[in-house]
Amino acid sequence: MKEQGSFDKVVEFFRQVLESLPDKRTGKNSRYGMEDAALSAFSVFFTQSPSFLSYQRTMEQTKGRSNAPSLFGVHKIPTNNHIRDLLAPVKPKEMFPIFETILETIEKKGKLQGFRGFGNNLLVALDGTEYFSSKQIHCPHCSTRKMKSGEIHYFHSVVTPVLVSPHQSQVIPLVPEFIVPQDGNDKQDCENTAAKRWLLQHGAKYSALNMTVLGDDLYYRQPLCQMLLVQSFNFILVCRPESHPTLYEHIEGVDLPTVVVNKWMRKFQETHTYRYLNGMNIRMD
Q1: 166 CB contacts (<8 Å, ≥6 apart)?
Q2: What is the dihedral of CA 47, 52, 56, 57, to 10 degrees?
Q3: Dihedral sign from CA coordinates of 133, 139, 142, 145
Q4: pLDDT of residue 3
Q5: Residue 104 is assigned to a structural domain of this protein
Q6: Which residues contact 80 (CB under 8 A, 6 or more apart)?
Q7: Structural domain for 197, as ranges
Q8: 196 in any annotated domain
Q9: Which long-range contacts (CB under 8 A, 24 or more apart) does 131-137 make?
């Protein structure tokens, strides 16, 4: 019951934020509230159904009622097209307070401790993902990629920081950072630059939670590593030989300290061998 109460409070705050979303409508045609449109859109991810409306109608037909009012507090469910029309003008930053409240609620309930690992650290995985791509449809905010054929590929992408743990099947999303053309900058925006903006905006707040940043080779660059150190983050970043040849030449032939860990995996044993070297200069390429 206590867990249900926490969920209800999060949903209630969610609803308060959604009720205050800017509404482009100026007339009296307001049958659907902005919160109903946004909650219906959000619930698609919760139910894993491509259409929340059809999902709820199927529930009503098979079970006599849907869980839209009871679970999400939806009064009326708009159509998919109506949801898109209402939410398209809303800027993503209007939703950011929800991420903060969810994290605060999880921390207050003591649930964040289950995500902590070595050194009482939280692991935050930084990664970029594309959420739109097209060869024809594009807008001023699109990133572009030129194919070998000469064809231009338009896409939208975002850096999505997520709290992860090897001991948990769930993850906790943090405030994202969108990869979009920046005013006053002729160079196309990229994942690495977006990660720097995210650190500048949120680093001080999140580093206080004792976090270790995880990332692929794209993030292993001196400026970003320096920012992580300044913000008091630990970090584990992939460093591929083809991206950093000078660094690998430097350690070639060096007798590196080694740690060997044996793990039993049901009927067989795995041997994990780790080699490490402290005090390396990351700015070698």
Answers
A1: 117
A2: -140
A3: positive
A4: 59
A5: no
A6: 51, 53
A7: 114-238
A8: yes
A9: 131/156, 131/157, 131/158, 132/156
Chain position carrying tokens 């990133």: 143
132-148 per-position pLDDT tens digit: 999 999 998 899 999 98
- Shared domain for 282 and 220, answered yes or no, is no
Residue 16 falls inside a structural domain: yes
State how far the Cα of 74 lies from the Cα of 55, in Å rounded to an integer: 14
Residue 35 counted as domain residue:
yes
Closest residue by Cα to residue 39 from 9, 5, 16, 66: 16
Structure tokens at 207: 């580093």
- pTM of this prediction? 0.80
Please state, as a whole number, how many other Cβ atoms lie within 10 Å of the Cβ of residue 236.
10
Instruction: Please indicate, yes or no, whether residues 76 and 171 belong to a single structural domain of this protein.
Output: no
Task: Indicate if 183 and 158 belong to the same structural domain.
Answer: yes
What interhelical angle do 222-230 and 191-207 show, nearest 10? 10
Q: What is the pLDDT of residues 119-135, one digit of tens each?
A: 999 999 999 999 999 99
